[in-house]
Structure formats: structure tokens, C-alpha cells
Amino acid sequence: MRTFQDRVAVITGAASGIGRGSALALARRGVHVVVADLNAERGAKAVREIEGLGVRAIFQRCDVTSDAEVASLRQAALEAFGRVNILMNNAGVLPLGGIEDTPTSEWERTLQVNLISIVRGIRTFLPDLLAADEAHIVNTASLAGLFAYDPALIAYAASKAAAVSLSEHLALALRPQGVGVTCLCPAPVKTNIGEQARVYGAPGAPGEYARVNLQGRLPEEVGEMVADAIRDDRFLLHTDEAAAADVARRGRDPDAFLRDMSAFLTRAG
Q1: Do the domain assignments include residue 3?
Q2: Of 149, 156, 200, 209, which is the active-site residue?
Q3: Per-residue pLDDT tens for 144-179?
């Protein structure tokens, strides 16, 4: 993206965590922001913070699993700003539990929020993005979508792996039409996603691999990375170089990587 000044971003899950961090980073660069979230109190606070940086912002309550509410989000954005340049599909949920403990209903909820909502958002906003002089999509996936490191994350990771594939195919389809695509695959980030985590069975202490091997980031740090990736039209965005190295190692020899990860988890357990 050549310039951020007076661009308009719509960000789901923007009242806290990575969404809020990204909204603030973009606002510092001159982007107006539509804060979409279920939490009105946090959303109003985020709007005040964004406006304190000298740009405009509005809050729109939005359940990303609802066609009607995402359509209302688009209408609110266009009524307030007349255009959309950046769409960040960031809302997500975190179930914890093994395959034998996680019910089918939880798989369906997780796929609705973490995957289908991305499809819903893109299908809703794509005409506006294609009409803009510059446009970019950011989809929040996860390191867990790139390789397996904890069986308790199985439903979450499957939804995020699908988000990675979706994003890659979107890049092939949309970049020739002038719409950039970034897939954010963060390693650990200090957010409040754990507040709404649903636990099934006894998953133990998830994330041991990440705790031992990876650097935790603040949402504000990740937000700056997101803004830079939009500027540079970068597709795959890691938040930790060690994670990037492990993705490459897994790609070279998936069987050896799986054996090594299994051995690590056995020792950690």
C-alpha cells in the first residue's frame, strides 16, 4: 500500500488483543478505523484511543457468524466513511481439548468463527475493496495452523490451517486484481482470548512447545508488524523468527519434524 493517510480499515475483534493493537498501529499511520466486536464497552474504549491519535473511528457491534450483522457492518462503514481499503478478519475463538473430548458442536462453532467468518467478511466487502484505489485483506490465522505442536489445540489448529490455505488461494486470485492479502500466523501473543476459551476433557497445560521455544509478543508489537506487512504487501507474517525456522524445518521433512515434536511433548509431559 503506497500510503495509509485517510484510508479506512474494518477490523473484527478490534476491541482488544491483536485487533486493537492493529487498529492503533494503523491509526498512527493516518487510517480511520471501524471497530467491530461483540464487547461494546471495550469497543467504545478502543474508539476513544484511536480517535486520540487524530483519526476518526466508530464502533459497530458485530457477530461475525451472522450474514445480517456483517452486512450491517459494511453498511455502517460506508455510511461513516464512504469506502473500505483494509479488511482485517481477526475475530477468533479458542477451544481446548483432544479429539475424543471436543464435541462436534464445538468444531462447528470454531469453524464458523475462525474460518467461515473470513469467507463471510470477504464476500461482503470484496466489491468495495475491488473498487478502492488501493486495498488489502489481513486474515488472522495462527502458528498452530502451520504445524502441530499440541494435541489439545486440534480444533483450533484445524480451523487456522484452513484459514492459511484460504488466504493463500485468495492471494492468487486477488493480487492480480489489485487487492493485497496478508496471512498473520502469530506465535504466542499476550491477549485476552483465554477469557472465552472452552475446555473439554483434561487437556493439561497447552502450549508447552510455545512456552519453551518462542518469544511472547504484546498485541501492540504485532499491530506494528501487521501495518508494516500491509505497507510491504507481504503474504505470510510470522511474529517470531524461531517459528519461521521451524516452519521451514517441518517443510523439509514432515516425518522427522513430527517425531521430534512427539519426543518433545513426551519429555515435557
Answers
A1: no
A2: 156
A3: 999 999 999 999 999 999 999 999 999 999 999 999
Tell me the residue range of the domain where 259 lies.
Answer: 8-268
209 catalytic per annotation? no
34: left (phi over 0), alpha (psi -120 to 50) or beta: beta
Residue 212 lies in a domain: yes
**CATH number, domain containing residue 139:** 3.40.50.720
Return the pLDDT at 267: 86
Rounded CA-CA distance 182/80 in Å is 25
pTM to 2 decimal places: 0.95
Position 170 in a domain: yes
| pLDDT above 60 (res 205) | no
Whether 140 is covered by a domain: the verdict is yes
Domain total of the chain: 1
The pLDDT-based confidence of 241 (bands split at 50, 70, 90) is confident
Judge contact between 54 and 255, C-beta under 8 A. no
